[in-house]
User: Fold this.
Amino acid sequence: MLKLNTEMPDLICPLCRDKIYASNKFVCNTCNKNFLSNNGILDFRYSNASLNPNRNWKIGEFDKGYKDRGDVKDHFDLARINHIPRAVEEYRYSLVKNRLLDWINVEEGARILDLGCGSGWFIRDMQYKLKGKRNIKYFALDASTVNLNYLENKRLENTIGILGFAENLPFPSGYFDAIVCSDALEHLFNPKEALKEMERVLKPGGQLLISTPSKLPFLLWGAIICVPRFVKRLLLNNRSKGAYDAPLYSSKLKSLLSNSGLQINNFKNSVLLIPEFYYQFLPDKLVSLSIKFANLFEIKYDSLNFLRLYTLVEAHKL
Ligand SMILES: [Zn+2]
Assistant:
């Protein structure tokens, strides 16, 4: 990890957007707000904003959910926590995360922001993919202290952990060569504002990579399988804590992007499975049969896009 006293990034106050002059403290000279640094992680969360308006969760409660689940070491670990069988996760990763890794295209010395980085395991995957490129700096942003404290376990190089809100980023305009927002947009209370911010902090020509669940297939499959949310919660005593969760319709995401000054180069609906969660109730044979079918239809039939679980985007700033 980069220690903040050795290499200080240019940051701005998320409240008034003035430059922050860092010495030992990180204080905004304009609004006098003092931003704390803890374990080399800067805290740019600026208020006791509610992180889940449905339940009025404040930062502490939001963090508690992540504490309960513990460190997420890699994508298989996350799948295990979410009761997703390994074979399903393998398939999902190949079509979602691997595609983002294929798309990412940066030069040596680039700055990359992982927006909603969680415990940082995808940064490790990016670093592996980009290991031939020197001096790439990674910025790991999340709203959860607990998540960012797990960054330490990943022993990531050239990575700075920053606590902040996607809707009000503490970075100057035109700062990043690439932003990855993978499986995070659906957890943001205001994705429209967040996309505007992503556009702002990207350099002209900078790349934005998004993966996020699409709302429609989850609604449809939920209705077809007749296991509505409350039954799922009843069955598993799984009252999800920690994150606001509101996937966007794929078409909605497209229109938000088009209105934000970003040029879409790739827009893909992918993963023709039933929502991954339900596979835990199926025998292994049915799981692998389902993956075989999905594989068969994955690259054919655009007419099935409405059933594909994920939306993937590669865009750049004009
Ligand atoms: Zn300020």
Residues 13, 15-16, 18, 28, 30-31, 33 surround zinc ion (CB under 6 Å). Residues 209 and 314 are 5 Å apart (CA to CA).
